[in-house]
């Protein structure tokens, strides 16, 4: 990388939420940020804030769904600063509702912004990274790329696609060790995305608890600009949900459906709206959507989270033990089977994990068992 201290960073979706928080955090470190979004006025205000906190900034209003505009963004960044060290694909919109009720045109638009926008950004910067022999690409996906989500099927499709892009491109670039492809997988984040989502559910949307501050995601992204890694999960609920669904998919799907239906939507009626799919929301260009400290669901959410912890932990231990049994039986070594009664103690669990690494991804098992076995359950976000 050109300098260990300063970076030239392009950020799409910079006008609000995670993008805005990341821009300010990087600017405070003295980085140069190239800010991209549809709202020119919001970008200019943000650029001024970034300059005030010690960074350099360039605002470029574009629609990431239009490839020519994204290519022009890359050209402007290179013309102004002669290089791009980091490119962050963060722009995203959302549509909520039962899949058959969401207009096809809105599904197309969401995929054009979320998935094609990420593809456009990647293709715009990749030749520059290859020419320099180095660079960091950071794609912001979501925990739904690990678990799916009901009543947000188009959004889930787009985030699965982004994760697939990152994984496959990293493999394609495996022989270029100084070009890094990173994916960020946040849980539920306090941003305006829920405030201005397209909504065909008939009920007003809200952020389902627990909610993580956008600054936590910005911290993870900022760290990746210095210390890249392939995937980073932000939020304990994302880690827990991944483990739970991997080990008990039917149970997870039923409970997740119930949770999203009850917590993602209010009782207040909502007329159908396309939200900010086609026109930016100029009234809400903040980092927060006001969800983190919103009263009314704390007890309900904490109870659900505790239930998820217990269920995920039990599923982790039970499923791991059964997988170990099946594995050892295949090896015809019944004398090595662990008694079920001891599977919940630290040492046997550790032994069990070692035997099932071929059956379940090690990080999934370790995350689940760490939650189940240690007395230290992750704190609420």
Automatic annotation (TrEMBL):
Pfam families listed in its UniProt record: adh_short
Gene Ontology MF annotations: oxidoreductase activity
Matching SMART domains: PKS_KR
InterPro entries: KR_dom, NAD(P)-bd_dom_sf, Sc_DH/Rdtase_CS, SDR_fam
Coiled-coil ranges (or none): none
GO cellular component assignments: membrane
Domain Ketoreductase: 7-192
Superkingdom field: Bacteria
Keywords: Oxidoreductase
SUPFAM superfamilies: NAD(P)-binding Rossmann-fold domains
NCBIfam families in alphabetical order: PRK06139.1 (NF004792), PRK07109.1 (NF005495)
Family: Belongs to the short-chain dehydrogenases/reductases (SDR) family.
This protein's name: SDR family oxidoreductase
